[in-house]
Structures are given as structure tokens and as C-alpha cells.
Design brief:
The chain has about 120 residues and is mainly beta. The chain has a single domain, classed as 2,3-Dihydroxybiphenyl 1,2-Dioxygenase, domain 1, CATH 3.10.180. It is built from 2 helices and 8 strands, in the order E-H-E-E-E-E-H-E-E-E. The strands form 2 sheets. The protein has a 4-stranded mixed β-sheet, covered by helices on one side. A 4-stranded mixed β-sheet has the order 5-8-7-6. The longest helix has 10 residues. The relative contact order is 0.22.
Length: about 120
């Protein structure tokens, strides 16, 4: 069996991106390893989601990456988000009750309500 245990996204808007993901319920801690860049990490069970600053060698953010998270109370969450980040309102889809939002770098984020 294989499981994903780490996802790192890079941004040139570190604080704004952290605030966006925090607004959907992800809690981050600030980290720095040695002389490496300050970044944010969130542990969700055995999965770690990190937000790093864009390196000097990268010209642009990869906005084509699509993310997905299971959330509680999707309708309440969408109501609390700024309207301009909501791309698709909550609806019943093939994979469950979900909405699509957009992070500050243009990545699409699928939010699916946990069953039950």
C-alpha cells in the first residue's frame, strides 16, 4: 500500500496563502530548518501539508496543481469565505457534496464534506 504523506506548495505570497488555507480549517505552525526558508507546516494525521516561499530560481508559481480536502460543514465554510474565492458553490457531485475554491495563487481547491 502507498499513501501520500507530504505535499509542498510554493508561493510568493506566504502569509496570504497561509491565511487562505487556515480559513478553510488547516492549522499551521511556522518552521525553519537550519538556514532554510521560513515556511508553514500542518500535520493532518500522517499527512503533512507545507507552504514554502517561491525560490529565487523559480519565475512563477505553479497554479495548475489542484488540491482537495475533506471538510466539516461545507455550507458554513463557503459562507464564511470571501465570495471572490468561490468558483463553484456547494453541490452534489459524483464524489460527494463539494465546492471549488481558488487559493491566492490560482490553484483550484476541492472542498468535499465528510460523509455522516
Amino acid at each position: 500500500m502507498i499513501r501520500c504523506n507530504l505535499l509542498v506548495i510554493k508561493t510568493n505570497q506566504l502569509e496570504t496563502t497561509r491565511q487562505f488555507y487556515q480559513s478553510i480549517g488547516i492549522q499551521f505552525q511556522k518552521h525553519q530548518h537550519g538556514r532554510g526558508p521560513v515556511h508553514y507546516a500542518a500535520e493532518m494525521g500522517t499527512f503533512v501539508f507545507e507552504i514554502y516561499p517561491l525560490s529565487n530560481q523559480q519565475a512563477r508559481v505553479d497554479s495548475s496543481t489542484r488540491l482537495g480536502f475533506e471538510v466539516n460543514r461545507l455550507d458554513d465554510l463557503i459562507t464564511a469565505l470571501p465570495a471572490d474565492v468561490v468558483l463553484k458553490l456547494p453541490h452534489q457531485a459524483e464524489w460527494g457534496y463539494q465546492a471549488i475554491v481558488q487559493d491566492p495563487d490560482g490553484r483550484k481547491v476541492e472542498l468535499t464534506q465528510q460523509p455522516g
